[in-house]
Amino acid sequence: MQSHFFAHLARLKLINRWPLMRNVRTENVSEHSLQVAMVAHALAAIKNRLFGGQLNPERIALMALYHDASEVLTGDLPTPVKYFNPQITHEYKAIEKIAQQKLIEMVPEALRDIFAPLIDEESHSEAETAIVKQADTLCAWLKCLEELSAGNNEFRLAKGRLEKTLAERRSDEMDYFMQVFVPSFHLSLDEISQDTPL
Q1: According to the model, what pLDDT value does residue 54 have?
Q2: Contact at 8 Å (CB) between 83 and 89?
Q3: pTM for the model
Q4: Among candidates 188, 187, 174, which has minimal Cα distance to 138?
C-alpha cells in the first residue's frame, strides 16, 4: 500500500510563516519545526538535569518536530486571525484536530501507533505540551529579534505580544535557556565565532 504521509510532510517547506507580515527573510514551517524541536529538546534536558524534571527529551523533540505538521493540510493561519475571537479559535482547533487525524490515517496501519502519539496533541501530557509550547513561543520570539535586528520594525508589536506569552509560560528551564543561549542571538556571526575558531 502506498502512503502519501511523507510526500505531504515534505511540503511543509512550501508553507511560509508570518504570511501577513513583511519579512527580511522568509521562514517556512519546516525550518521553524526543526528549531522548535531543538529548543524543546534543550528545555526538557535542562528541566531534567537542573530542576528535577522527569521528562523524555527525545520524545518531546519528536513531538515538537510534528507540532505544526497539520498545517500542511490547513495552511498557516495568521495569529491575529486565529485568535480574533473565541469562536474562530475554537473552530480552528477543530479543523486542526481533523487535519491531525487525516495525517495519522495516511500512515500505514502497522506504523500508526508510532506516529499517532507524536501528531495527536491530545495524547501529550500536560508537562510535554508545556515544553513544546514554550519552545514554539521562544522560537517565534527569536524570529522577531532577528527581523528587528535587520531593521524590520514590522515585528515590533509581535515581539511585545510574544513577550507577554513567554511571561505566562515562564519556567525555570526557560529562564535558564534565555540567560545562557539567547544573548548570542544579538551578536553578529563574527562575534559568535571569535571563541570557536575552526
Answers
A1: 97
A2: yes
A3: 0.91
A4: 174
Whether the CB-CB separation of 85 and 77 falls below 8 Å is answered with no
Give dist(CA 30, CA 13) in Å, integer: 5
Domains of the chain: 5-180 (1.10.3210.10)
Helical residues (DSSP H) of the chain, grouped into ranges? 5-9, 29-51, 57-65, 71-74, 79-82, 86-106, 112-119, 126-149, 156-168, 172-180, 189-193
Render pLDDT for 98-142 as a digit per residue (tens, 0 to 9).
999 999 999 999 999 999 999 999 999 999 999 999 999 999 999
Q: What is the mean pLDDT of the chain?
A: 92
Q: State the cell numbers at 185.
A: 542571538
With bands split at pLDDT 50, 70 and 90, how would you rate the model's confidence at 93? confident
| Cα distance between residue 193 and residue 170, in whole Å | 30
Round to whole Å and give the CA distance between 174 and 139: 12
Whole-angstrom CA distances from 118 to 24, 37, 60, 133, 174 are 32, 12, 9, 14, 22
